[in-house]
Amino acid sequence: MSTPPFSFPFAHWTSTSFATPTASLALPSTLILGLATGEILIVSTGADPQLRARLLGHRSRIIALQPFTSISERSSAEPQFLSLSADGEVSKWSTRDYRCLQSVSTGATRPQGMVVAEKCGIGEGRLIDSLVLIYARKTQVIVLNAESLEIVLVWTGLQDWGLPVVMGKMGERECEIAMVMAGGAVSSWVLEGKPRNVGNPEVLKVRKEKKNRRVAIQEEWGMIKGAWKLSGDRWLIAQTRGVGIYTLDGSSLSESDLQEMDPALVKAIVSDNSETVFLVNEAGITTVFDIKNGTFKKIAEIKPGEVDDQCVVDVAVSLTRNGEGTLIISSRPVIHAHGPGCVEGHNYGTQLTFADFYIVDGVMTNLIWKEKGLSRSNPPRNSIPPSSCAALFQNLLCTVHGLTLYFHTLPTFLISYHEPTNALDLPLSPGDCVSILKSIPLLSHAYLVAGTTSGSIFVLSSPSSTPRHLALSHGAITGLYLLPETLGRRIRSTLLAIDEHGTAIIVDIERNRIMTTLPSHGHSTLSSIAMKMGQNLLALTYSDGVRREWSLDEGSGELINPVSRNEESLPQLDSDWMVTMLGAAPVVDEERTRPVSTESDKSLDVCPGSPELGFPSVKIDVRRVLADLEEATKIARENRRPQERKVNAINPALVRAKALLTALFPEGVEHLFPYQDDEGDKAWGEEDEEDILRRAVENCFIRRARLPTLGQIGAGGRVSMISPDTAAEEGELSDTVAGILILAVILLVQAILTALGKDDYLIGNVVDRIIVTWMVREKVTLGVFAKFWGDRHPLIQSTARRLLSAGMAHLTNEERSLVITFWQDFLPINIPPPLATLKEVPRSVMILTTLLHLFPATTPTSLIKPLSQSTLVLLNHPPTSAIASEIVSYAWPTLESHSDPLTLLTTLLSLPADPPITSSLLSITRQNTPLVISTLLSLISTPTQPSLDPNSTRIRTRAIQLLTTITTTDPILLLDLLPTIIDTLLKHPHHDLLASLAKTYPIFAYHPTSGRVAYSGRDGAIIIMDLKQQGLVMHDLMGHRGRAEWVIFSSDGKWVAALAPLEGAEGVRPATGVRRGSHSSVGPRPSTAESVGMKKSFSSSGAERRNFDLPARQGTGEGSSRPGSSSAAAGVRREVIGQAQAKAEGWELCAWRFPSGLLSFIGTATTGERDTVVKVRGRWKVPGIRNISKVEWKAVGAEAPVGQSHGSGERVVVVKGLEGERWECNVNT
């Protein structure tokens, strides 16, 4: 089972500007801009340009953007794009819903760009057919798989750093790459796909070709900035001061035409058809050339004056093959909005200007500038100033807008952002603003600290308290860190404030005083701090490689080591130093549970980076909202009065759930639960079932108008915030968003209706209507439901599985075929080892197995064998074995029909005895008990051969453990098979398992010392067998007229007693969970062939299923007893005789005593015949007890010394009733 993150981001779009563009990608009707802050903007370039989305997650400037096409569940050619940031992180985004699909840190230092080699013919299948090449100012290139972003090759051996140019497919499984070096040398390399080999996980290798070329570049033009392979043998080489077209002639590239650039070249854009090039110089002038004939033919020149004299910083071009295009010019922002020194009324931020054009026959026409550009996000009416930072404080979200702190609960943030719980103005001077906001939790109290651009901090002890002011330095406060309580007494639990110049100030925020100031080194910023446990020592490392160690035992601190001038001379810190890197943010994995803040209500968290960009956004955890409401519902149901067994309307947990549901689905009940007119006769004012259901759903929403916009959380914690205008458009709901949204909506509706006291029938009807309505109207991604298929939360798991089945049912044949095509490439047997960690791998087995299970007639038969093999691969892979076992148990009827069930069972038994795997085996046992039990008994009875099979001993032990677990947790399953189990264990005894059987089943008894077992036969005989003689029958003890329900040995093994219903109860079947009206299967030792239809149990598809009718247990609840617990066994003993107790007139007790000479099994028994010497010592009627809970022996008199016989000492049988009755009988008199 898993617990994947389940959160939604919400944002309020206040008026905000954009940072400087550093990369751009123009697609048809869409512009993608990468900014210096790491943000990515999605802008529509149609008749009315507007911002569509803001993509967050990169922590440094965007270096490159590249388009990419892949396959998905819903499309055979889904457009995507890749982004590369300066810290070496690569992300893949969908251009349909702007969600981050994958994210990875490549480890590349100083990356310069990336190149995508799509469908280059390398490798086997789609998953290793496209590559991404990351190049940097180093002699290596990092090669990634374009589908998974897994690093498949680190290409080394280059003499110098260069620019890779994809030449195309060279041969079978080969792709040629040309590396253009700084000096003009061009080396040819070949990336070759290697055959898949489990022992060698590498899928690529690189070799250098002997052919080397050289470009006759113009050395006076400076360094090479770009290289493109044009049509034919022509190349385009861009240098700082010019651009040239070169033609391949043997081993050299000779110039065909040159175009000098003055001012210097900033950017070159080559069209997809290689016929047009756009050159942008430092002055912002864009010159357009036609190059299809191998020469530069100038066709247009666009000067900065055409964009209102702004300083051009970036140009993007979208040009189709028929000549239609769009030109987008980005002008330089003057200063970031609402920063220090902002001037009221000045238009800050990036300005985007759009122009449409048409190029035909080498002539640009119709260059029309659009009247509307884009300078900032469109603010809503009555907008407040943009936010600058945010933090969680005392279960509230605090955001800073201008000079005001706004405090919000989850409902007020979602429903009434402009009406906060509290607002507090800070006494800041003109031009000053808040630069950082952080909650500082101390042992005694939590404080909110706001750092300003003037070097001061404000400390708040509560949202309504007066802030305390403390001036620290002359530079903006950029960092606030709480020093650990494990340090020395003087600096423990103090605040370390850092300003923009690298000065560190230690502050006692409880006493509101500065303890000491540690000056900077040449105004260099701090990169890390280190501390020693139990000491007042700090080591500060600066960005220029200087480290200073300070002793803070007294006074203002003492510098205790010399200054180091570079990183190479820095000595390594000892292991007892605790190092904290400043500014480092952890990479978050989408598929793993992330810790939540302990300072909030745990359902609310700040989206990192967004408040600093001007729009406040939060992540709301659906799991926590559900957990809080479920806890409130549980508490409410403990009330004694029925009318009070529902959650109060003003309960915070219920209000949070309603607010989240309203924000997720602002259309409300009309869109979620549309009215259906049955055209029936209904009197005015009369409510039918439809009205009742709709009114119940209406009560789940809050009627408010001002709502935030909903975003998405993708891979690596990347957040995609959709603009309000885009969110308001019809048909903008992608299949991924539709899937995760309906899952959250149904979960919240169920939890809210349950909290309001609605019955299960109404809730079930509501959910059915919502699912049908949604699946008819929206397309969903099945992978979303597969993500939560094995969730630990029962409600999330069941709802996800239900939606997965419903989504499959609403697929057309064409859509179902596309789903199979997409997911079968991710089956483990089709994945090379380096890609085996993809999250899609287990989901592929999950989705395709469910599809085969629900729709076997429409699933291709060619899929069955690879699916069975893939299931075994997942079972044998430790990280996926648990979820694979759940898949097997869920689809067992289908898998046992289309694969080898014995192999699956043996593989499951070879896995560790973890709870999920044991639970799956129990589920399979309930579905086909005869097959599982016969497999277990076969493994138990087969001799192990560790030398030939090292796992054989472990599998046999696991089989015994599973049989013991079944005995103690679900013993009803084994009743029909009990004779076969006993027969096997008599020949291959296992004492713990026999003891467990005796503890669970009253009709069976085991005495470990003498090695005897006893069980009740149909004819009333008590059959005694000896383990020492491989189960040879020693005695048939006659006495009862009917079948006994309790059999017990005395502690010394000399006595055996049996309790049976009186004659009036003969033929009554006890409540053992077997089929009603049948007789007990435990009789006079049946043969193996007679035992419960073993011949039928091996039928894979038409096997006889043993569906037992288990009545309510007396004294135990379902799941109340753990496997192996004594309470579980006691509960089963009570239920085994439950129905017989209800109908019997009374009980009859018989007791037998073995002669001392027979304890060692001597005399007539050696002939193999049954010994009939032992006779019943008496019969007693048990009065006054109708329902029996326990039968036991009790010794009376002094115990004999060890090694001596007890003689004829008295023996007493005690019978206890469920209502406390007790009856004793001395069977020796």
TrEMBL record:
Residues 589-608, 1069-1131 are annotated as: Disordered. Residues 1119-1131 have a biased composition (Low complexity). It comes from the Eukaryota. PANTHER family: RABCONNECTIN-3B, ISOFORM A. GO terms for cellular component: cytoplasm. InterPro entries: ARM-type_fold (IPR016024), WD40/YVTN_repeat-like_dom_sf (IPR015943), WD40_repeat_dom_sf (IPR036322), WDR72-like (IPR049916). Residues 589-604 have a biased composition (Basic and acidic residues). It comes from Ascodesmis nigricans. The lineage of its organism: Eukaryota, Fungi, Dikarya, Ascomycota, Pezizomycotina. This is WD40 repeat-like protein.
